[in-house]
């Protein structure tokens, strides 16, 4: 059986991989994937603290995780829409070349 520390270490590792991916990648889609990894690490924290908390029957961690997953899905849809519009305009997904977001 795993402990709270194990879940927090996996979550910290997942968050750091996502942060490194979001900060070092130049492709906009890979930046979105890094952000999704960070949101999944936060969901893992919600569920771990809910499971090992004083009142696991309250389901507060599960509700926060479900809300966070729905926000992540909306963020992915809007983010991909913005990336597609920028790709049509700039003909690239390189975030360094998309620095002039003028109309």
Describe the protein.
The chain is mainly alpha-helical and 103 residues long. The chain has a single domain, classed as Orthogonal Bundle (Helix Hairpins). The protein is 74% helix and 0% strand. The chain is built from 3 helices and no strands. Helix 1 packs antiparallel against helix 2 and helix 2 (28-51) packs antiparallel against helix 3. 7% of the residues are buried.
CATH class: Mainly Alpha
How many structural domains in the coordinates? 1
What general form does the structure show?
A: elongated
Beginning-to-end CA distance, first to last residue: 55 Å
Largest sheet: none
Summarize the structure.
The protein is an all-alpha fold.
What are the SSEs and their pairings?
Blueprint: H1 4-24, H2 28-51, H3 60-90
Helix pairs in contact: 1-2, 2-3
Question: What are its keywords?
Answer:
74% helix; 103 residues; mainly alpha; 3 helices; Helix Hairpins
């Amino acid at each position: 059986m795993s402990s709270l520390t194990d879940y927090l270490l996996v979550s910290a590792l997942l968050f750091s991989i996502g942060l490194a991916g979001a900060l070092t990648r130049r492709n906009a889609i890979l930046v979105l994937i890094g952000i999704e990894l960070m949101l999944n690490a936060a969901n893992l924290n919600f569920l771990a603290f809910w499971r090992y908390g004083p009142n696991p029957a309250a389901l507060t961690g599960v509700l926060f995780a479900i809300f966070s997953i729905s926000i992540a899905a909306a963020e992915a849809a809007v983010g991909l829409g913005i990336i597609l519009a920028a790709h049509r305009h700039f003909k690239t997904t390189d975030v360094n070349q998309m620095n002039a977001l003028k109309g």
